[in-house]
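If your schedule permits, I should be very grateful for your opinion on a structural question. The matter concerns a single protein, recorded as an amino acid sequence and a row of backbone structure tokens. Could you please explain, in whatever detail you think fit, how the structure tokens follow from the sequence? I set the record out below, with my sincere thanks for your time.

——
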Amino acid sequence: MPALALLSDAFAVLAPVFLVAAIGYGWNRADLPYDSAFITTFAVNVSSPCLVFSALTRLHLPAGVMAEMAVAATLCMGVTALLSVPLLLATRLSLRVYLPAMAFPNAGNLGLPVCLFAFGESGLSLAVLFYAVMSVGQFTLGPAMAAGRFDLGVIARTPTIYAVAVAVAIQLTGAALPNWIGNTATLLGNCAVPLMLLSLGVALSKLRLSGAVRALSMSAFRLAGGFAVGLLVIWAMGLTGPIRGVVLVQSSMPVAVFNYLWALRYGNAPEDVAGMVLGSTAMAFVALPALLMVVMP
């Protein structure tokens, strides 16, 4: 019975994620109106920064816990990227094409709702910290990797960076946030998770798996490597409780859809990255119940 109960809990966590993403997938396959450009722009520039800002300003966590999560998130992405370099060089695969996909997991579209349903509001807050750190890296180092150079213009136009900076300043100074600002940010931030899941479904409905063997192999490495690095980080840092589960879940997420957008923008074999997004997401959906059985209390 305990095993059945655990499977039931895992299904309860995954079902909303699958269903909302499936709505987006089916919506686009049915050729119904969906303004991807508007929704993606709104999610990136408004709802996601508001979610990060709202979650960070409402945190009632010690500064040490916030710093611990920031270090853990940085290590998960950095170590995964470092471990990927020898593999990519040995297989003669382009670092510009594949390294961003290996380094940055889908800690937003998939990681946030999974952590919310698995660990509740406290888990979401910790997951947002991971996502905030990843977002800063994804919008600075991500384009730099894809373009082969730093684009200061892209960095300067990234609202999430400013949202993180302002929220951290408020936390450190203890400044009182006016209720109308907090309520507005919360209202807009509440749009982020469903919009990201819908956009994930729509994006997956447009992607086609090309170079199946290579894409699936790299997808498996992304998931296995992320999980292994997550285990290494939580062991090395001695993490326990919800923060342990959140770090392991977020580190084990599939390739983020944004990596496909960067590849498309800079002409870095977008079809290969699309295959990794599709392949790793399909594998993650199969593997998530087992992962949740490991991390859920």
